[in-house]
Amino acid sequence: MKCPYCTKIDNKVIDSRLSKDGRTIRRRRECLECSRRFTTYERLEEILPMVVKKDGRREPFNRDKIIEGIKKSCQKRPVSITKIEEFVDSLEVYFHELGKKEIESKEVGERVINSLKEWDEVAYVRFASVYRQFKDINEFMNELEDILKSKRETESS
Asked: Which member of 29, 42, 44, 143 has the lowest number of beta carbons within 10 Å of its beta carbon?
């Protein structure tokens, strides 16, 4: 592993810990050249299905792309990065266990949007505005009205 500070490859592992779900190993390393410490994560490389985009293009399932999209929606909102990463971990497991070679991008997007709706309404609306590609302010307002309506129903019960 290359040191992120001095780019030398000589380092030693100081500590290793298994994640809660047992799918990732966190390693603390110390560079033997500059003596600085850094953390690496090791996970089993799994063959995930290809994602079929709306226009028919196919691209590999990309957890980092999903995490970045969710992080943008959750910017300055009370949603932790840990929660986001755990969700994407579970998403990967779900799609891996499906055993399909291809999945529709819509299925990924709907799973993300449903989780955001539970976590934070503002993050949900931010994601929905990009994901659902609102054509005008009326579509945006309809989405907001649906959120307010379901919130009122929840509060009254």
From this structure: 44
